């Protein structure tokens, strides 16, 4: 039972069929079929129920899927760790919330690259909940998320505590404005909605955007208001077009946290991230 066959099996499960898996693996369908058949012959079990072009996992298939994912994750972790030892080369997959990506992350990545020039940095930005999901699935090696985030499978370190403020166009009547927010899974979104409900607003009017500049741009022309760390607004090119109002204390605190999976070794490049952030002045 070789890793390539397990990788093929895992892709068939994820894609739901031979044809789609073959495209993802950049191979022909016959190669995928052959590897699945070889696995079934070697294990002496049927891994799929075949219903026309659809494939449904058997009980044995579901069991293999669970172990295959663990084995593939371990293989990936081993490869990553060994590539970083001594030569300090390889790939580091970094996830970040949009607000951190737009402010501190470029400096952090630049400093890390200077300290580890042979490291290939891959960067992905999303909401906290999506980043945590990807970290738990070993799709990312380290993430910067808004918190607090607590999970038994994750190692968490606080980077800093932020103060959230209500951001809107100067002179606008905030109570009449819809909220402009990141997608579901953003902690700022959750706090903004909780604040609005505490004001008696039971029919929330929302606008969703995927970028920080888009949210601030719409707020600047009076389409709505938003909630985010004050330091993020100050670093934005929209700063002069906007103003802030204070939120009740219970809705103002959030953290930026550095997280990795407990099964992922603390690589030298990750250690550099920690050192960079620990050396930052409080007002950065």
From TrEMBL:
Residues 1-58 form the HTH lysR-type domain. Keywords: DNA-binding, Transcription, Transcription regulation. PROSITE patterns: HTH_LYSR. SUPFAM superfamilies: Periplasmic binding protein-like II, Winged helix' DNA-binding domain. InterPro entries: LysR_HTH_N, LysR_subst-bd, WH-like_DNA-bd_sf, WH_DNA-bd_sf. Pfam families: HTH_1, LysR_substrate. Belongs to the LysR transcriptional regulatory family. This is HTH-type transcriptional regulator GltR.
């Amino acid at each position: 039972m070789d890793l390539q066959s397990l990788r093929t099996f895992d892709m068939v499960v994820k894609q739901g069929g031979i044809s789609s898996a073959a495209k993802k693996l950049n191979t022909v369908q016959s190669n995928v079929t052959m590897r699945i058949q070889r696995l079934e012959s070697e294990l002496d079990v049927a891994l799929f129920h075949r219903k026309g072009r659809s494939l449904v996992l058997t009980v044995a298939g579901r069991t293999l899927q669970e172990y295959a994912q663990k084995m593939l994750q371990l293989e990936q972790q081993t490869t990553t760790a060994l590539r970083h030892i001594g030569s300090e080369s390889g790939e580091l997959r970094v996830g970040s919330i949009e607000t951190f990506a737009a402010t501190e992350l470029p400096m952090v990545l630049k400093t890390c690259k200077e300290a580890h020039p042979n490291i290939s940095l891959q960067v992905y930005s999303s909401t906290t909940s999506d980043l945590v999901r990807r970290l738990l699935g070993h799709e990312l090696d380290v993430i910067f998320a808004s918190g607090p985030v607590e999970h038994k499978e994750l190692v968490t370190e606080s980077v800093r505590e932020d103060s959230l403020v209500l951001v809107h166009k100067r002179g606008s009547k905030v109570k009449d404005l819809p909220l402009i927010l990141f997608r579901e899974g953003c902690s700022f979104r959750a706090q903004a909605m909780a604040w609005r409900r505490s004001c008696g607003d039971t029919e929330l009017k929302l606008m969703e955007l995927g970028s920080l500049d888009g949210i601030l741009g719409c707020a600047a022309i009076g389409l709505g208001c938003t909630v985010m760390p004050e330091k993020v607004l100050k670093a934005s090119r929209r700063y002069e077009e906007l103003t802030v109002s204070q939120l009740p204390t219970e809705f103002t605190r959030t953290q930026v946290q550095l997280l990795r999976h407990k099964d992922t070794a603390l690589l030298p490049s990750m250690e550099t991230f920690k050192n960079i952030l620990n050396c930052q002045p409080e007002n950065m």
